[in-house]
Amino acid sequence: MNAPLASISDAASQAPTLTEIVRTLTLTAGFNAKVVVLSAALLGISAGLVGCFALLRKRALMGDALAHATLPGIALAFIIGAAFGLEARSLAVLLPGAAIAGIAGVVCVQLLVHHTRLREDAAIGIVLSGFFGLGVALLSYIQGGNYADAGGLNTFIYGQTAAMLPRDAALMGAVALLTILASVLFHKEFAIVAFNEDYARTQGWPVPRLDLLMMGLVVLVTVVGLQAVGLLLIVALLIIPAAAASFWTRRLRTMVILSGCIGGFSGYLGASVSALTPRMPAGAVIVLTGGVVFLLSMLFAPQRGLLAEQIRTFALRRRVAREHWLRRLYEAQDRGGAPVSIPTHDLVSRGLGLGSVLARVDLRLSGLIEVSGAGASLTERGTREGARVTRNHRLWEQYLMTYADLAPSHVDLSADLVEHVLSPELIDELETALRERKALPERLPDHTEREAGGRP
Protein backbone atom coordinates (compact mmCIF):
# COMPACT_ATOMS: atom_id res chain seq x y z
CA MET A 1 0.00 0.00 0.00
CA ASN A 2 1.28 3.48 -0.82
CA ALA A 3 2.27 5.74 2.04
CA PRO A 4 -0.21 8.52 2.82
CA LEU A 5 0.47 11.86 1.20
CA ALA A 6 1.85 14.62 3.37
CA SER A 7 -0.06 17.24 1.42
CA ILE A 8 -2.24 17.62 -1.63
CA SER A 9 0.70 18.99 -3.62
CA ASP A 10 2.58 15.71 -3.18
CA ALA A 11 0.17 14.03 -5.61
CA ALA A 12 1.72 15.94 -8.51
CA SER A 13 5.16 14.48 -7.82
CA GLN A 14 4.01 10.92 -8.54
CA ALA A 15 4.79 10.02 -12.15
CA PRO A 16 2.05 8.10 -13.99
CA THR A 17 2.65 4.43 -14.57
CA LEU A 18 2.86 2.86 -18.03
CA THR A 19 -0.54 1.27 -17.51
CA GLU A 20 -2.11 4.65 -16.71
CA ILE A 21 -0.52 6.22 -19.78
CA VAL A 22 -1.79 3.48 -22.07
CA ARG A 23 -5.28 3.57 -20.59
CA THR A 24 -5.48 7.36 -20.93
CA LEU A 25 -4.22 7.39 -24.51
CA THR A 26 -6.58 4.57 -25.49
CA LEU A 27 -9.55 6.28 -23.80
CA THR A 28 -10.10 3.50 -21.29
CA ALA A 29 -9.11 5.40 -18.13
CA GLY A 30 -12.69 6.15 -17.13
CA PHE A 31 -15.75 7.90 -18.48
CA ASN A 32 -14.83 11.40 -17.32
CA ALA A 33 -11.28 11.24 -18.72
CA LYS A 34 -12.57 9.82 -22.02
CA VAL A 35 -15.15 12.58 -22.44
CA VAL A 36 -12.62 15.31 -21.60
CA VAL A 37 -9.97 13.99 -24.03
CA LEU A 38 -12.46 13.51 -26.86
CA SER A 39 -13.93 16.98 -26.31
CA ALA A 40 -10.48 18.59 -26.33
CA ALA A 41 -9.64 16.75 -29.55
CA LEU A 42 -12.88 17.94 -31.17
CA LEU A 43 -12.11 21.46 -30.01
CA GLY A 44 -8.66 21.23 -31.62
CA ILE A 45 -10.12 19.99 -34.91
CA SER A 46 -12.72 22.77 -35.05
CA ALA A 47 -10.13 25.42 -34.09
CA GLY A 48 -7.80 24.14 -36.83
CA LEU A 49 -10.52 24.29 -39.48
CA VAL A 50 -11.89 27.71 -38.53
CA GLY A 51 -8.44 29.13 -37.82
CA CYS A 52 -7.27 28.15 -41.30
CA PHE A 53 -9.89 30.38 -42.94
CA ALA A 54 -9.37 33.15 -40.37
CA LEU A 55 -5.62 33.12 -41.04
CA LEU A 56 -6.09 33.30 -44.81
CA ARG A 57 -8.65 36.09 -44.32
CA LYS A 58 -6.08 37.97 -42.21
CA ARG A 59 -8.35 37.87 -39.17
CA ALA A 60 -6.01 36.06 -36.78
CA LEU A 61 -5.60 39.01 -34.39
CA MET A 62 -9.35 39.46 -34.34
CA GLY A 63 -9.56 36.12 -32.54
CA ASP A 64 -7.20 37.44 -29.87
CA ALA A 65 -9.36 40.50 -29.30
CA LEU A 66 -12.47 38.33 -29.23
CA ALA A 67 -10.95 35.98 -26.64
CA HIS A 68 -9.97 38.79 -24.28
CA ALA A 69 -13.35 40.43 -24.74
CA THR A 70 -15.12 37.35 -23.37
CA LEU A 71 -13.85 37.86 -19.81
CA PRO A 72 -16.34 40.61 -18.78
CA GLY A 73 -19.12 38.55 -20.37
CA ILE A 74 -18.20 35.58 -18.19
CA ALA A 75 -18.15 37.73 -15.08
CA LEU A 76 -21.47 39.43 -15.85
CA ALA A 77 -23.12 36.09 -16.72
CA PHE A 78 -21.93 34.72 -13.37
CA ILE A 79 -23.35 37.73 -11.48
CA ILE A 80 -26.70 37.53 -13.30
CA GLY A 81 -26.91 33.76 -12.90
CA ALA A 82 -26.21 34.03 -9.16
CA ALA A 83 -28.84 36.75 -8.80
CA PHE A 84 -31.48 34.47 -10.34
CA GLY A 85 -30.46 31.48 -8.25
CA LEU A 86 -28.98 29.50 -11.14
CA GLU A 87 -25.86 27.34 -11.04
CA ALA A 88 -23.70 30.30 -11.92
CA ARG A 89 -20.47 28.39 -12.69
CA SER A 90 -22.02 26.04 -15.23
CA LEU A 91 -21.02 26.48 -18.87
CA ALA A 92 -24.68 26.74 -19.84
CA VAL A 93 -24.77 30.07 -17.96
CA LEU A 94 -21.26 31.38 -18.66
CA LEU A 95 -20.88 30.57 -22.36
CA PRO A 96 -23.80 32.73 -23.58
CA GLY A 97 -22.35 35.68 -21.66
CA ALA A 98 -18.90 35.02 -23.13
CA ALA A 99 -20.37 34.82 -26.65
CA ILE A 100 -22.30 38.09 -26.29
CA ALA A 101 -19.26 39.91 -24.92
CA GLY A 102 -17.03 38.49 -27.68
CA ILE A 103 -19.45 39.64 -30.39
CA ALA A 104 -19.63 43.06 -28.71
CA GLY A 105 -15.83 43.25 -28.81
CA VAL A 106 -15.74 42.45 -32.54
CA VAL A 107 -18.45 45.04 -33.22
CA CYS A 108 -16.49 47.65 -31.27
CA VAL A 109 -13.40 46.95 -33.36
CA GLN A 110 -15.37 47.33 -36.58
CA LEU A 111 -16.97 50.57 -35.39
CA LEU A 112 -13.60 52.04 -34.47
CA VAL A 113 -12.13 51.10 -37.85
CA HIS A 114 -15.04 52.43 -39.93
CA HIS A 115 -15.85 55.62 -37.98
CA THR A 116 -12.37 56.78 -36.94
CA ARG A 117 -8.96 57.06 -38.52
CA LEU A 118 -7.58 54.25 -36.41
CA ARG A 119 -6.09 51.25 -38.15
CA GLU A 120 -7.39 47.78 -37.36
CA ASP A 121 -4.38 46.78 -35.23
CA ALA A 122 -4.79 49.87 -33.06
CA ALA A 123 -8.54 49.26 -32.69
CA ILE A 124 -7.89 45.64 -31.71
CA GLY A 125 -5.37 46.74 -29.08
CA ILE A 126 -7.79 49.26 -27.59
CA VAL A 127 -10.72 46.85 -27.42
CA LEU A 128 -8.57 43.98 -26.18
CA SER A 129 -7.07 45.93 -23.29
CA GLY A 130 -10.32 47.72 -22.42
CA PHE A 131 -12.50 44.63 -22.27
CA PHE A 132 -9.86 42.58 -20.49
CA GLY A 133 -9.37 45.31 -17.88
CA LEU A 134 -13.14 45.44 -17.30
CA GLY A 135 -13.21 41.66 -16.91
CA VAL A 136 -10.41 41.66 -14.32
CA ALA A 137 -12.22 44.38 -12.38
CA LEU A 138 -15.46 42.38 -12.40
CA LEU A 139 -13.63 39.25 -11.26
CA SER A 140 -12.14 41.20 -8.35
CA TYR A 141 -15.65 42.38 -7.45
CA ILE A 142 -16.95 38.79 -7.57
CA GLN A 143 -14.10 37.47 -5.41
CA GLY A 144 -14.75 40.17 -2.83
CA GLY A 145 -18.50 39.59 -2.85
CA ASN A 146 -20.70 37.02 -1.12
CA TYR A 147 -20.79 34.45 -3.98
CA ALA A 148 -20.58 30.83 -2.91
CA ASP A 149 -19.62 29.58 -6.39
CA ALA A 150 -16.96 32.22 -7.10
CA GLY A 151 -14.03 29.89 -6.41
CA GLY A 152 -12.10 28.90 -9.51
CA LEU A 153 -13.84 31.35 -11.83
CA ASN A 154 -10.49 32.84 -12.84
CA THR A 155 -9.48 29.47 -14.33
CA PHE A 156 -11.15 30.68 -17.53
CA ILE A 157 -8.13 32.94 -18.00
CA TYR A 158 -5.68 30.03 -18.22
CA GLY A 159 -8.03 27.10 -18.76
CA GLN A 160 -8.56 23.99 -16.65
CA THR A 161 -9.68 20.96 -18.60
CA ALA A 162 -9.66 18.66 -15.60
CA ALA A 163 -12.31 20.80 -13.88
CA MET A 164 -14.89 20.10 -16.58
CA LEU A 165 -17.93 18.09 -15.68
CA PRO A 166 -19.22 15.51 -18.18
CA ARG A 167 -22.11 17.78 -19.18
CA ASP A 168 -19.70 20.67 -19.78
CA ALA A 169 -17.48 18.51 -21.93
CA ALA A 170 -20.50 17.22 -23.84
CA LEU A 171 -21.64 20.79 -24.52
CA MET A 172 -18.16 21.72 -25.73
CA GLY A 173 -18.05 18.66 -27.98
CA ALA A 174 -21.49 19.39 -29.45
CA VAL A 175 -20.56 22.98 -30.31
CA ALA A 176 -17.26 21.80 -31.77
CA LEU A 177 -19.09 19.30 -34.00
CA LEU A 178 -21.43 22.07 -35.16
CA THR A 179 -18.42 24.24 -36.03
CA ILE A 180 -16.77 21.41 -37.97
CA LEU A 181 -19.98 20.79 -39.92
CA ALA A 182 -20.35 24.48 -40.82
CA SER A 183 -16.69 24.68 -41.94
CA VAL A 184 -17.18 21.70 -44.24
CA LEU A 185 -20.48 22.93 -45.71
CA PHE A 186 -19.20 26.46 -46.39
CA HIS A 187 -15.69 25.48 -47.49
CA LYS A 188 -16.09 26.85 -51.02
CA GLU A 189 -17.63 30.13 -49.88
CA PHE A 190 -14.96 30.77 -47.24
CA ALA A 191 -12.22 29.94 -49.75
CA ILE A 192 -13.34 32.42 -52.39
CA VAL A 193 -13.80 35.20 -49.83
CA ALA A 194 -10.41 34.52 -48.24
CA PHE A 195 -8.47 34.51 -51.52
CA ASN A 196 -10.28 37.02 -53.72
CA GLU A 197 -12.83 39.21 -51.99
CA ASP A 198 -13.24 41.58 -54.96
CA TYR A 199 -13.98 38.71 -57.33
CA ALA A 200 -16.52 37.30 -54.87
CA ARG A 201 -18.30 40.66 -54.74
CA THR A 202 -18.43 40.97 -58.54
CA GLN A 203 -19.90 37.48 -58.76
CA GLY A 204 -22.68 38.40 -56.33
CA TRP A 205 -21.47 36.49 -53.29
CA PRO A 206 -22.74 37.91 -49.98
CA VAL A 207 -19.28 38.76 -48.64
CA PRO A 208 -20.46 40.59 -45.47
CA ARG A 209 -22.68 37.66 -44.49
CA LEU A 210 -19.92 35.15 -45.14
CA ASP A 211 -17.55 37.27 -43.07
CA LEU A 212 -20.12 37.37 -40.29
CA LEU A 213 -20.56 33.60 -40.45
CA MET A 214 -16.79 33.07 -40.37
CA MET A 215 -16.36 35.32 -37.34
CA GLY A 216 -19.36 33.63 -35.74
CA LEU A 217 -17.54 30.31 -36.00
CA VAL A 218 -14.46 31.94 -34.47
CA VAL A 219 -16.68 33.15 -31.62
CA LEU A 220 -18.03 29.63 -31.07
CA VAL A 221 -14.56 28.07 -31.02
CA THR A 222 -13.27 30.77 -28.71
CA VAL A 223 -16.16 30.45 -26.30
CA VAL A 224 -16.15 26.65 -26.06
CA GLY A 225 -12.37 26.64 -25.75
CA LEU A 226 -12.26 28.87 -22.67
CA GLN A 227 -12.61 25.96 -20.27
CA ALA A 228 -9.95 23.90 -22.04
CA VAL A 229 -7.15 26.36 -22.91
CA GLY A 230 -8.31 29.67 -21.47
CA LEU A 231 -8.84 33.01 -23.13
CA LEU A 232 -5.11 33.81 -23.21
CA LEU A 233 -4.16 30.73 -25.24
CA ILE A 234 -7.23 30.04 -27.38
CA VAL A 235 -5.89 32.34 -30.12
CA ALA A 236 -2.80 30.09 -30.35
CA LEU A 237 -5.04 27.09 -30.96
CA LEU A 238 -6.67 29.02 -33.80
CA ILE A 239 -3.44 30.17 -35.47
CA ILE A 240 -0.71 27.58 -34.84
CA PRO A 241 -2.33 24.54 -36.57
CA ALA A 242 -3.15 26.59 -39.67
CA ALA A 243 0.33 28.12 -39.78
CA ALA A 244 1.94 24.69 -39.39
CA ALA A 245 -0.23 23.19 -42.14
CA SER A 246 0.72 25.98 -44.56
CA PHE A 247 4.30 24.66 -44.69
CA TRP A 248 3.21 21.27 -46.04
CA THR A 249 1.01 22.15 -48.99
CA ARG A 250 -0.15 24.87 -51.36
CA ARG A 251 -3.63 23.38 -51.83
CA LEU A 252 -6.35 24.87 -49.65
CA ARG A 253 -8.32 21.66 -49.13
CA THR A 254 -5.21 19.78 -48.00
CA MET A 255 -4.19 22.68 -45.79
CA VAL A 256 -7.59 22.75 -44.07
CA ILE A 257 -7.50 18.98 -43.44
CA LEU A 258 -3.94 19.12 -42.09
CA SER A 259 -4.79 22.08 -39.88
CA GLY A 260 -7.71 20.19 -38.39
CA CYS A 261 -5.55 17.11 -37.80
CA ILE A 262 -2.80 19.14 -36.10
CA GLY A 263 -5.34 20.90 -33.91
CA GLY A 264 -7.03 17.61 -33.01
CA PHE A 265 -3.72 15.96 -32.14
CA SER A 266 -2.73 18.94 -29.97
CA GLY A 267 -6.04 18.81 -28.09
CA TYR A 268 -5.89 15.05 -27.66
CA LEU A 269 -2.32 15.00 -26.34
CA GLY A 270 -2.76 18.06 -24.14
CA ALA A 271 -5.89 16.74 -22.45
CA SER A 272 -4.23 13.32 -21.99
CA VAL A 273 -1.17 14.82 -20.32
CA SER A 274 -3.41 16.95 -18.11
CA ALA A 275 -5.34 13.86 -17.04
CA LEU A 276 -2.11 12.03 -16.19
CA THR A 277 -0.42 14.93 -14.37
CA PRO A 278 -2.95 16.99 -12.39
CA ARG A 279 -0.64 19.99 -11.96
CA MET A 280 0.17 20.26 -15.68
CA PRO A 281 -2.27 22.74 -17.28
CA ALA A 282 -3.92 21.28 -20.35
CA GLY A 283 -4.07 24.60 -22.18
CA ALA A 284 -0.33 25.07 -22.01
CA VAL A 285 0.36 21.49 -23.12
CA ILE A 286 -2.08 21.80 -26.02
CA VAL A 287 -0.40 24.98 -27.24
CA LEU A 288 3.10 23.55 -26.70
CA THR A 289 2.19 20.45 -28.70
CA GLY A 290 0.98 22.63 -31.55
CA GLY A 291 4.13 24.73 -31.21
CA VAL A 292 6.36 21.66 -31.55
CA VAL A 293 4.45 20.54 -34.64
CA PHE A 294 4.81 24.07 -36.07
CA LEU A 295 8.56 24.06 -35.41
CA LEU A 296 9.01 20.66 -37.07
CA SER A 297 6.88 21.79 -40.02
CA MET A 298 8.86 25.00 -40.41
CA LEU A 299 12.13 23.09 -40.45
CA PHE A 300 11.37 19.83 -42.27
CA ALA A 301 8.29 20.33 -44.48
CA PRO A 302 9.25 19.12 -47.99
CA GLN A 303 7.69 22.02 -49.91
CA ARG A 304 8.13 25.17 -47.85
CA GLY A 305 10.31 24.13 -44.91
CA LEU A 306 13.56 25.92 -44.17
CA LEU A 307 15.65 22.78 -44.70
CA ALA A 308 14.04 22.05 -48.08
CA GLU A 309 14.52 25.69 -49.06
CA GLN A 310 18.20 25.53 -48.16
CA ILE A 311 18.59 22.31 -50.14
CA ARG A 312 16.98 23.91 -53.20
CA THR A 313 19.16 27.00 -52.82
CA PHE A 314 22.29 24.84 -52.54
CA ALA A 315 21.25 22.84 -55.61
CA LEU A 316 20.71 26.04 -57.60
CA ARG A 317 24.08 27.44 -56.54
CA ARG A 318 25.71 24.15 -57.47
CA ARG A 319 24.07 24.25 -60.89
CA VAL A 320 25.14 27.87 -61.42
CA ALA A 321 28.73 27.08 -60.46
CA ARG A 322 28.82 24.01 -62.74
CA GLU A 323 27.51 25.99 -65.70
CA HIS A 324 29.93 28.84 -65.08
CA TRP A 325 32.83 26.39 -65.10
CA LEU A 326 31.62 24.80 -68.33
CA ARG A 327 30.94 28.12 -70.06
CA ARG A 328 34.26 29.72 -69.11
CA LEU A 329 36.23 26.65 -70.21
CA TYR A 330 34.26 26.28 -73.43
CA GLU A 331 34.65 29.97 -74.35
CA ALA A 332 38.39 29.77 -73.78
CA GLN A 333 38.56 26.60 -75.88
CA ASP A 334 36.32 28.12 -78.58
CA ARG A 335 38.59 31.14 -78.97
CA GLY A 336 41.75 29.01 -79.04
CA GLY A 337 40.38 26.32 -81.33
CA ALA A 338 41.72 23.51 -79.15
CA PRO A 339 41.30 22.23 -75.58
CA VAL A 340 42.99 24.60 -73.15
CA SER A 341 43.58 24.72 -69.41
CA ILE A 342 42.57 27.64 -67.21
CA PRO A 343 44.05 28.01 -63.72
CA THR A 344 41.48 27.64 -60.94
CA HIS A 345 42.35 31.01 -59.41
CA ASP A 346 41.51 32.68 -62.73
CA LEU A 347 38.02 31.16 -62.72
CA VAL A 348 37.47 32.23 -59.10
CA SER A 349 38.59 35.76 -59.88
CA ARG A 350 36.05 35.93 -62.73
CA GLY A 351 33.07 35.59 -60.43
CA LEU A 352 32.64 31.92 -59.57
CA GLY A 353 33.42 32.38 -55.88
CA LEU A 354 34.43 29.74 -53.35
CA GLY A 355 31.58 27.46 -54.44
CA SER A 356 33.58 26.71 -57.58
CA VAL A 357 35.74 24.32 -55.60
CA LEU A 358 32.81 21.95 -54.97
CA ALA A 359 31.60 22.42 -58.54
CA ARG A 360 35.03 21.48 -59.87
CA VAL A 361 35.00 18.25 -57.83
CA ASP A 362 31.48 17.51 -59.09
CA LEU A 363 32.45 18.08 -62.73
CA ARG A 364 35.58 16.00 -62.36
CA LEU A 365 33.68 13.07 -60.84
CA SER A 366 31.10 13.38 -63.66
CA GLY A 367 33.85 13.08 -66.26
CA LEU A 368 33.21 16.54 -67.75
CA ILE A 369 36.59 18.12 -66.94
CA GLU A 370 40.14 17.02 -66.40
CA VAL A 371 42.29 18.66 -63.75
CA SER A 372 46.06 18.91 -64.03
CA GLY A 373 48.75 21.00 -62.44
CA ALA A 374 48.16 23.78 -64.98
CA GLY A 375 44.44 24.00 -64.34
CA ALA A 376 41.23 22.47 -65.72
CA SER A 377 40.20 21.53 -69.26
CA LEU A 378 37.08 20.04 -70.82
CA THR A 379 36.78 16.42 -71.85
CA GLU A 380 34.98 15.43 -75.05
CA ARG A 381 31.70 15.01 -73.19
CA GLY A 382 32.37 18.20 -71.25
CA THR A 383 32.88 20.06 -74.54
CA ARG A 384 29.42 19.02 -75.73
CA GLU A 385 27.86 20.05 -72.41
CA GLY A 386 29.79 23.33 -72.43
CA ALA A 387 28.54 24.06 -75.93
CA ARG A 388 24.96 23.52 -74.80
CA VAL A 389 25.34 25.76 -71.75
CA THR A 390 27.10 28.50 -73.74
CA ARG A 391 24.47 28.39 -76.47
CA ASN A 392 21.63 28.75 -73.92
CA HIS A 393 23.40 31.66 -72.28
CA ARG A 394 23.94 33.49 -75.57
CA LEU A 395 20.40 32.69 -76.69
CA TRP A 396 19.04 34.41 -73.58
CA GLU A 397 21.39 37.36 -74.13
CA GLN A 398 20.08 37.68 -77.68
CA TYR A 399 16.51 37.65 -76.40
CA LEU A 400 17.27 40.41 -73.88
CA MET A 401 18.92 42.61 -76.50
CA THR A 402 16.15 42.04 -79.04
CA TYR A 403 13.02 42.29 -76.90
CA ALA A 404 14.01 43.72 -73.50
CA ASP A 405 15.90 46.63 -75.12
CA LEU A 406 18.90 46.27 -72.83
CA ALA A 407 22.24 47.77 -73.75
CA PRO A 408 24.89 45.22 -74.75
CA SER A 409 27.03 46.27 -71.77
CA HIS A 410 24.22 45.27 -69.36
CA VAL A 411 23.07 42.04 -71.00
CA ASP A 412 25.74 39.72 -69.63
CA LEU A 413 24.86 40.47 -65.99
CA SER A 414 21.13 40.02 -66.65
CA ALA A 415 21.72 36.73 -68.41
CA ASP A 416 23.87 35.48 -65.55
CA LEU A 417 21.07 36.24 -63.09
CA VAL A 418 18.21 34.70 -65.08
CA GLU A 419 19.45 31.95 -67.38
CA HIS A 420 20.04 29.46 -64.58
CA VAL A 421 16.36 29.37 -63.61
CA LEU A 422 15.15 28.65 -67.15
CA SER A 423 13.94 25.12 -67.78
CA PRO A 424 14.97 23.26 -70.96
CA GLU A 425 11.36 23.45 -72.15
CA LEU A 426 11.33 27.25 -71.78
CA ILE A 427 14.66 27.52 -73.61
CA ASP A 428 13.24 25.50 -76.52
CA GLU A 429 10.16 27.73 -76.52
CA LEU A 430 12.29 30.90 -76.64
CA GLU A 431 14.39 29.49 -79.46
CA THR A 432 11.31 28.56 -81.47
CA ALA A 433 9.78 32.01 -80.94
CA LEU A 434 12.97 33.75 -82.04
CA ARG A 435 13.26 31.61 -85.17
CA GLU A 436 9.60 32.23 -86.08
CA ARG A 437 10.20 35.97 -85.81
CA LYS A 438 13.49 35.58 -87.71
CA ALA A 439 15.23 37.23 -84.77
CA LEU A 440 17.73 34.42 -84.21
CA PRO A 441 20.90 35.06 -86.25
CA GLU A 442 22.82 32.30 -87.91
CA ARG A 443 25.77 32.98 -85.60
CA LEU A 444 25.12 34.14 -82.06
CA PRO A 445 27.39 36.97 -80.87
CA ASP A 446 30.36 36.09 -78.72
CA HIS A 447 31.65 38.09 -75.76
CA THR A 448 34.29 39.90 -77.83
CA GLU A 449 31.66 41.43 -80.10
CA ARG A 450 29.47 42.52 -77.17
CA GLU A 451 32.33 44.10 -75.31
CA ALA A 452 33.12 46.12 -78.46
CA GLY A 453 29.56 47.49 -78.23
CA GLY A 454 28.24 45.90 -81.41
CA ARG A 455 24.56 45.01 -81.58
CA PRO A 456 23.85 42.01 -83.85
Q: What is the spatial order of strands in the main beta sheet?
A: 1-2
Could you say how many structural domains there are in total? 2
Radius of gyration from CA coordinates:
32 Å
CATH architecture of the largest domain: Orthogonal Bundle
Q: Tell me, rounded to a whole number, the average pLDDT.
A: 78
Task: Describe the global form.
Answer: elongated
Order of helices and strands: HHHHHHHHHHHHHHHHHEEHHHH
How would you classify the quaternary structure?
single chain
Helix tally? 21
> CATH superfamily assignment of the largest domain?
ABC transporter involved in vitamin B12 uptake, BtuC
Low-confidence stretches: 1-12, 439-456
CATH domain topology of the largest domain: ABC transporter involved in vitamin B12 uptake, BtuC
List how many beta strands DSSP finds. Answer: 2
